[in-house]
Design goal:
The protein has 901 residues and is an alpha+beta fold.
C-alpha cells in the first residue's frame, strides 16, 4: 500500500534525523555516480580527461553545493542547527563546572520550592476529587446567620437540616450528606483506628465509578432512622486486610459499636470529598447517626454532617445559592416555630452553594491560608533564584564580549547568536528542572505531610500536572534569565569590542547587576521578617499557660459495646478502669473525665446563679466531671478551697469547683466559696462551690471569656446519665512513651468487642498550635533557602568581579594599598548591597504587616526586635559571602596583574 504524502514526508524526515550518516553516505555515492557518468559522457565526446572532469563538475554545480542543497530538502535544517547549539552549549557548560553548578542549583532550588507548593495548592484548592462527575456543577453547602452582631458561616449541618434542604430545594438533581470520622475497626481479632466515611446512599452517584467488587448500598439500606448495617470497603483495605479475596462479600466486620456486613468494594482511588486520606470503609450515614444519637434525625442541634449538591445543567451558581437560601430560611423557621418576621430579619439565615474544596470557601482553614501565603513565598524564592541566575549570566556575557564580537565579525547573524545563547539558557533551565523535581520529591515530603494528610498521593514523579507546571515555569525562566544578558552582549559594536583589551572588556560596574543584587537582598529581608514573626508567634503560643500539664497526661477512651449498665455497674466499671491504669509502672495517678480540652465537652452550658442575670452573655461555659484525684492528675491547681474528694458521691450534697475567671465574672469580689449554683436548669438542686481552680485553655488558644466548672463524676452520672468511660492518666516522663502500654492494659478490662484509644494531651494541644507551627516551619525553610540563594548570588558576583578586577587590584596594591584595604573594599561592596536590601525590605515588611498580622499569635508585625535581628543576620551572611573573594583578592601578585593586557 502506498503511504500518503504527509506520512511519507514524516517518514523521510525521521530517517534524515536519525540516519544522517547513512543518508550522507548514500548521497556521496549517488553524486559520485552522477559525476562518473558525466565524465564518461564527456570522454566519449572527445574531451581530454582533465577537461572532462572539470566540465562534469561545472555541470553539477559543485559537489559541496549539491550536498548542501540535498540536505536542505530534508527539512531538518532547524533541528540540525538546534543539535549543534545543544552540543556547543553542553561543551561550554562542561568547561565552566563552577558556573554551571551555581546556575543549576539556584534554578533547581527555586523550581523545587514552587513544584512542592504547586502540588499542595493544586490539591487543596483546584484539583477535583477523583472520579467526580461534572465537577463544575458540584457544590459544598454552607449555612450562615447573624448571631449577636456577628456573621457566622458553617460548613456542618444536622441530618434534619440535610433532609429539609434536600426536600425544599428545587434546582438540584442530587444531594448527599457525608461525615468523616476516625473509628475503631475490628477485622477478626485485629482492632485498629481507621478513617470511616458515613455517607448517604446518593453519595456514590456523584462519581463515575463502578464498584471493584459487589455493589454500593441502596437508598433502602440508608433509610432513617436505623438504616441497615452494611459496609463498602475501600480498595486499599480490601487488598491489605483481605488480600483481594473475591469471596469477601457477606463477611462481617465491626466499626465502633456496630457489626456490618460487607456488600461491596469501592474502586481504587475513590476518596470522596475529603482532602485527607482515603476512607477505609463507607457506611450508611443513618446507621452511624443512630448509634451516636437515636434522636439524630428529628432535631437540628447536632451539626455533624457536610452536605454536597449537584445543580441541574441549566441552573447558575447564583440561582442555586438563592434556592438554597430559600430552603434554609424555611428550615430555620421550622426549627424556631415561635420565630416571627422580626427575628428572621435579625438572624438573616442564608445558604451558599460554594466550591467543593474547603480552602476556597468562606470557611477556609488556617492550613489553607498558610499554604496560600507559603505559595507566594515560594514565588519570591523563584524570583530570587532568577535574579541570581540573571546576574551570573550578565557577568558571563560581559566576559564573552570579545567572543561574541568575533563571531559577528565572521558573519554570524545576531539572530543565530541569540538562538545559541537561549539554547544554552534552556539547557540550564532543563537541568535545573530535573534538580528541582528531585528536590520536590524528596526534600518536599515534610511540607506535604505538614499541609496534606494524603502525602503519599502527592508524589511529584507521578504527578503529571506538577511536571507540566515545572516544565512550563522552567521554560519561562530560561527566556527571562537568558534573554536580557543575550541582548546586552549583542548590542555592542563588534569593532569596539575587538579593539578593547581584557582590561576594557573585563569588570565594569553595572546598574542592572547592582539592581539584581539589591532585589535579592530585599526579597530575602522580607522573607526573613515573615519567618521571624511566625517563629515569635510559635514561641508565644507555646508559652501560653494552659492550666494543666499536657506533656505528662495521657487521654484514654473506651468505645463500649453490649447491653446498657446500671448506674452502680457503671460506677464499679469506672473504678476498675482507674485501678487498672494506676497499676501500670510509671503511672502516678488517674481520673475519669467527661470533657477533654480542644477535643469535646459535655455541654450543660451556662449555670443559673441567684441574683445574676444573663449569665450566658458573660462568656463561654464548659462543664467537666471527674473522679477523685482529677486535679492532681491534670496538674490544674486549686487556688482556694478544695478539689473533688472520695466523699463527693451520688446521694451526698452536690458540690462544684469553678475556675478563677468564672468566680470573678459571677461575683465581682471573686469570693465564690460557699455560693450556690444550679446546673442545667433553674429547677435542678443547688450545687455549692467548694473550690476555685486556676483558669485553663480548652476551647481557644487565643483566649476570651472561657469559664470551666467541675462536678464529681458520680453526681454527674446520677443527674445527667451515663458517659462512655474516658480517663486522664498522669505518668512519669513523656506521655507518648506510655500510650501503647496503657492501651493494652486497659484493653484487658473491657469486653473483647470494645476498643481502647490512647492519645497524649500534648498531641491534642499541638493540633491547635499547628497553624503557627506550619507558618514558622515553612517560612523558616523558604526564608533559609532564599538566604542561601542570595548568599550564593552575592558570592558568585563578587567573586567574578574580583577575577575581572585583577588589573585594578594589582594597581591598587602596587600603589601601596594593604591587604586590609583590599578586604574592606571588596567586603564593603557586598555589605553595601545588604544594607540597601535591608532598608528596602524593612520598608516593604512594615507596609505588608497589616495583612500578615491576622495570621500571627499575640505578635506585632512591626516588632523592632524582629527587624533588628533580620538586619544582623543578613549583614552577617553578606560578610561571610564576600570574605572568601576578598581574601582571594589580597593574593593577587601586583607584578603579574600589571602585565595583564
Amino acid at each position: 500500500m502506498m503511504l500518503s504524502r504527509p506520512l511519507l514526508v514524516i517518514r523521510m524526515r525521521l530517517r534524515a534525523l536519525f540516519q544522517r550518516e547513512r543518508l550522507d553516505a548514500e548521497l556521496d555515492e549517488e553524486l559520485h555516480d552522477h559525476l562518473l557518468r558525466q565524465i564518461d559522457a564527456n570522454l566519449r565526446s572527445g574531451m581530454p580527461p582533465r577537461e572532462a572532469r572539470r566540465a562534469a563538475l561545472l555541470a553539477l554545480g559543485g559537489l559541496q553545493r549539491r550536498k548542501e542543497e540535498s540536505r536542505d530538502t530534508r527539512g531538518i535544517a532547524t533541528i540540525e542547527a538546534l543539535q549543534q547549539d545543544l552540543r556547543y552549549a553542553w561543551r561550554g557548560l562542561r568547561s565552566k563546572p563552577g558556573f554551571t553548578i551555581a546556575v543549576v542549583l539556584a534554578l533547581g532550588l527555586g523550581l523545587g520550592a514552587n513544584a512542592v507548593m504547586f502540588g499542595i495548592i493544586d490539591r487543596l484548592m483546584f484539583r477535583s476529587p477523583a472520579f467526580l462527575r461534572t465537577p463544575e456543577r458540584v457544590h459544598r453547602v454552607y449555612v450562615g446567620r447573624n448571631l449577636d452582631g456577628y456573621d457566622q458561616i458553617d460548613a456542618n449541618i444536622s441530618y434534619k437540616r440535610f433532609t429539609e434542604l434536600t426536600e425544599w430545594s428545587t434546582v438540584f438533581e442530587r444531594s448527599t450528606a457525608v461525615a468523616y470520622r476516625t473509628l475503631s475497626v475490628r477485622i477478626g481479632a485485629d482492632v485498629s483506628e481507621m478513617t470511616a466515611a458515613a455517607v448517604s446512599a446518593d453519595f456514590f452517584g456523584f462519581f463515575d465509578a463502578r464498584p471493584a467488587l459487589g455493589r454500593f448500598f441502596s437508598m433502602d439500606e440508608d433509610r432513617a432512622p436505623t438504616g441497615s448495617p452494611v459496609v463498602v470497603l475501600s480498595y486499599a483495605l480490601w487488598q491489605s486486610r483481605y488480600g483481594g479475596d473475591p469471596n469477601v462479600l457477606g463477611k462481617q466486620l465491626d466499626v465502633r459499636n456496630t457489626t456490618y456486613t460487607i456488600v461491596g468494594v469501592a474502586p481504587k482511588a475513590l476518596v470522596g470529598f475529603t482532602d485527607g486520606r482515603a476512607p477505609a470503609v463507607f457506611i450508611p450515614v443513618t446507621v452511624f447517626g443512630y448509634e451516636q444519637n437515636p434522636d439524630y434525625y428529628r432535631n437540628h442541634g447536632w451539626t455533624w454532617l457536610e452536605m454536597f449538591v449537584r445543580r441541574r445543567p441549566n441552573v447558575t451558581p447564583q440561582a442555586a445559592t438563592a434556592d438554597l437560601t430559600s430552603a434554609f430560611r424555611r428550615s430555620w423557621m421550622a426549627e424556631h416555630e415561635s420565630s416571627d418576621l422580626s427575628s428572621l430579619k435579625t438572624a438573616r439565615p442564608r445558604a451558599i452553594a460554594g466550591d467543593v474544596p474547603l480552602s476556597r470557601g468562606p470557611k477556609a482553614s488556617p492550613e489553607s491560608k498558610i499554604a496560600t501565603l507559603t505559595t507566594g513565598v515560594a514565588v519570591v524564592v523563584l524570583l530570587i533564584a532568577c535574579a541570581n541566575v540573571t546576574n551570573l549570566l550578565l557577568a558571563r556575557a560581559i566576559g564573552r564580549r570579545r567572543e561574541v564580537a568575533l563571531r559577528l565579525a565572521l558573519g554570524v547573524t545576531r539572530g543565530r547568536l541569540l538562538q545559541l545563547v537561549l539554547t544554552e539558557s534552556v539547557l540550564m533551565a532543563a537541568m535545573g528542572a530535573v534538580v528541582g523535581i528531585a528536590a520536590a520529591q524528596w526534600g518536599g515530603k515534610a511540607l506535604r505531610v505538614l499541609l496534606l494528610q494524603a502525602a503519599d498521593a502527592t508524589a511529584v514523579f507521578t504527578d503529571v500536572r506538577t511536571l507540566l507546571f515545572v516544565g512550563a515555569v522552567a521554560l519561562a525562566v530560561a527566556f527571562v534569565t537568558g534573554l536580557f544578558p543575550a541582548m546586552l552582549a549583542l548590542r555592542d559594536d563588534p569593532a569596539n569590542a575587538l579593539k578593547a583589551g581584557p582590561r576594557e572588556g573585563g569588570y565594569r560596574p553595572s546598574r542592572t547587576r547592582t539592581g539584581l543584587l539589591l532585589l535579592q537582598a530585599t526579597l530575602s529581608t522580607v522573607l526573613l521578617i515573615g519567618a521571624a514573626l511566625f517563629v515569635r508567634s510559635l514561641q508565644n503560643v507555646r508559652a501560653i499557660p494552659l492550666g494543666y500539664d499536657s506533656e505528662s497526661v495521657v487521654y484514654a477512651h473506651a468505645s463500649m459495646r453490649g447491653p446498657p449498665r446500671s448506674d452502680g455497674e457503671q460506677n464499679a466499671f469506672n473504678e476498675r478502669l482507674v485501678s487498672a491504669a494506676t497499676t501500670l509502672p510509671g503511672v502516678r495517678s488517674a481520673s475519669l473525665t467527661v470533657s477533654v480540652p480542644f477535643e469535646f465537652d459535655a455541654g450543660r452550658g451556662a449555670p443559673f446563679v441567684p441574683g445574676v442575670d444573663s449569665v450566658g452573655k458573660l462568656g463561654s461555659f464548659t462543664s467537666q466531671a471527674g473522679s477523685p484525684f482529677y486535679f492532681a492528675t491534670t496538674g490544674t491547681r486549686i487556688l482556694r478551697g478544695r478539689g473533688i474528694t472520695v466523699d463527693d458521691r451520688a446521694g451526698t450534697p452536690r458540690v462544684l469547683v469553678i475556675s478563677q475567671s468564672m468566680a470573678k465574672a459571677l461575683w465581682r469580689d471573686g469570693d465564690a466559696l460557699g455560693k450556690q449554683i444550679r446546673i442545667g436548669s433553674d429547677t435542678t438542686p443547688f450545687s455549692t462551690v467548694v473550690g476555685i481552680a486556676e483558669d485553663i485553655r480548652g476551647r481557644d488558644l487565643r483566649g476570651g471569656s472561657e469559664f470551666w466548672y467541675y462536678m464529681p463524676l458520680t453526681q454527674y452520672i446520677a443527674s445527667y446519665g451515663k458517659a462512655e468511660p474516658s480517663l486522664f492518666v498522669r505518668v512519669n516522663g513523656q506521655a507518648e512513651d506510655y500510650l501503647e502500654g496503657l492501651r493494652r492494659r486497659l484493653q484487658r478490662e473491657v469486653s473483647s468487642a470494645a476498643y481502647v484509644q490512647t492519645r497524649s494531651l500534648a498531641d491534642m494541644v499541638a493540633d491547635r498550635q499547628r497553624p503557627w507551627e506550619m507558618g514558622a516551619t515553612m517560612l523558616v525553610a523558604f526564608a533559609a533557602l532564599a538566604l542561601v540563594l542570595a548568599a550564593i548570588g552575592l558570592y558568585s558576583v563578587i567573586s567574578y568581579g574580583v577575577a575581572q578586577r585583577t588589573h585594578e587590584l594589582g594597581v591598587r596594591m602596587a600603589l601601596g594599598a594593604s591587604s586590609g584595604d583590599v578586604v574592606r573594599l571588596v567586603v564593603g561592596q557586598g555589605v553595601g548591597f545588604a544594607v540597601g536590601g535591608i532598608a528596602i525590605g524593612s520598608a516593604i515588611g512594615l507596609w505588608a504587616g497589616k495583612w500578615v498580622e491576622p495570621l500571627l499569635f499575640s505578635q506585632s508585625a512591626h516588632d523592632p526586635r524582629v527587624f533588628a535581628f533580620v538586619g544582623i543576620v543578613l549583614l552577617a551572611v553578606a560578610i561571610c559571602a564576600t570574605l572568601v573573594p576578598a581574601i582571594r583578592a589580597t593574593r593577587v601578585d601586583p607584578t603579574v596583574a600589571l602585565h595583564i593586557e
